[in-house]
Amino acid sequence: MNTKPPPVDLTINCPLVAEILTRFIRCEIQRTGFQRAVVGLSGGIDSSVTTYLAVRALGAENVLAVTMPYTTSSQATRDDSRLVIEQLGLPTIDAPISGQVDAYYDQFPEASQMRRANMCARQRMTILYDQSVAFEGLVLGTSNKSELLLGYGTQFGDMASAINPIGDLYKTQLYPLGRHLGLPESILHKQPTGDLWVGQTDESELGFSYATADALLYLLVDRRWSKTELLAAGFDPSFVDRITERVRRNHYKRRLPIIAKLSHRTVDRDFRYARDWGT
Amino acid sequence: MPHTTAPARQLRVALAQLAPRLGDLSRNLGTHLEWIDRARQQDADLIVFPELSLTGYFLRDMVPDVALAATDPRIGQLVQRAGAADLALGFVELAAGQRYYNSALYASAGQLLHVHRKVYLPTYGLFDEQRYFAAGHRIQAFDAPALGRVGLLVCEDFWHLSAATILQAEEVDLLICIANSPGRGVQGPRIKTSDVYGHVARTYALLLGAVVLVVNRVGFEDGLCFWGGSLAVGPDGELLAEAAQLDESLTIACLDPAELRRQRIITPLGRDERLLLTIEELQRIKRRSYEHEAAPRRFDD
């Protein structure tokens, strides 16, 4: 792709960010009367960073790592999850999802790769929410800001959680944070992948690198650059259009379902309370 | 603070940097009582709580449910508990006509001395205060027997130069800003919002030749991180005390009344202000904007 973005400084103060996010997890969990958290651990950077932060906030014994491999999940993924669990000494549950997913698709053998990938994400969500009851903990989100803005996630699947500590960090910002938190090197160096099918990588599926997308998203969203300014800075026009359109088209995933308004006071429209109401 | 040449007793100000419980008035009243007791044990002459300290910040539709009249006996109880210490705190004020203000009050010796209703209600970015609160219409200083002439601002008011200008004309000795500032910007050594507050506080202290207090809360509400870092700045712009960031803390700042006298001899900016010039220029600028708006204009080609 012929994009030559301007140098964009996405540096974060890792100790400060880790401190804020640790306190965030502790505060938002404990104010609801809980002490514990549940994380779906894939062995990727997002869920690993979330897990390390949760351990800082709550202690290892209070963080349940759930691994939920599908038949096609790579060995590297499984090994990296194992590494995190061992390094942190976490309680863990291994709940492979192949049985339930395959049983369902036996009825619909023609189902596309995308349908199956979304189904996997939603099956994992149901397992996490089920285990959260057994473990008496809240489900932590692992969607980063790049994914949330690009809509690169499954609605009610991996995008579902009670609280999300990393949703305001771009993908490229998670690597220095992961390094600061002491994540295993193998996780810091591998290609980002949803591990949705054999050989899948995020960047090949998206068609652009996170570094380029994050630079554009940062200028567009955080710094409010106009399209004219982005083009003048060297971004490829079709790339700018593509990203902008992705952000718009996927906005529905970031919102609650639209409710038809009939009364004077409608949930999520003019019935407005903080989530942390009364706590 | 009397501008005395005689050695005056230092004044002890308690910066009560707490994390209120969102919308839980009775619990927060109890917390205030505890913190007032703790501050008195440390011989505080003035105890300052953050903005909306009795209610928490992100109230939205809860605003009418947690509103109190400034003379409500529950506030009176706090003032009584403060005893000889002066007290400043933040609350949702229920006023005539079912208006709700984001207000700060200042009480001394069992009396309500002043209520400042937040003038500048931020309604941009993450803020939506104008949806819920009425805006105040006054920025006025008042006299507190032990502390001198005091100006009280609430958070966003502090970001408006005009508010500081008015309080300079009021010749305040002490400018108190109570805040609920959520942290934004994590690139540098400290949360960026906290740095900016520090710059503004030191600048105002120098320009007004006054002591400036900023009391900010801590804790989280819906993912917003209130960073604390409450501070006291002397009239020479030097930091007198700073509370830790992110943690609850009762920090004592010692103010030396003699420093006000010295600074106003060294840099008498207030004396040299030309208030009439400012008023005339502002009137001219206002007239010009009316004329500009009234003038016929061509459409762009």
Summarize the structure.
By secondary structure, chain A is mostly helical.
Structural description of this entry:
The complex is a heterodimer of chains A (279) and B (301). With 279 residues, chain A is mainly α. Helix content of chain A is 48%, strand content 6%. Chain A contains twelve helices and four strands. Chain A has a four-stranded parallel sheet with strand order 3-2-1-4, with helices on both faces. In chain A, helix 3 (75-88) links the parallel strand 2 (63-67) and strand 3 (92-94). Chain B has a six-stranded mixed sheet with strand order 5-4-3-2-1-14, with helices on one face. A six-stranded mixed sheet of chain B has the order 6-7-8-9-12-13, with helices on one face. In chain B, helix 1 (25-41) runs parallel beside helix 2. The chains are: A mainly alpha (279), B alpha/beta (301). Chains A and B meet through helix 1 of A and strand 10 of B.
Strands, helices and their partners?
The complex is a heterodimer of chains A (279) and B (301).
Chain A lengths: L13 H17 L5 E5 L4 H14 L4 E5 L7 H14 L3 E3 L3 H8 L7 H23 L1 E3 L5 H6 L20 H11 L3 H5 L12 H5 L3 H13 L4 H6 L4 H13 L30
Parallel strand pairs in A: 1-2, 1-4, 2-3
Chain B lengths: L10 E7 L7 H17 L4 E3 L24 H10 L3 E10 L3 E10 L2 E7 L24 E3 L3 E7 L6 H9 L4 E6 L12 H17 L2 E6 L1 E4 L2 E4 L3 E3 L5 E4 L6 E7 L1 H10 L2 H4 L2 H20 L7
Parallel strand pairs in B: 1-2, 2-3, 7-8, 8-9
Antiparallel strand pairs in B: 1-14, 3-4, 4-5, 6-7, 9-12, 10-11, 12-13
Helix pairs in contact in B: 1-2
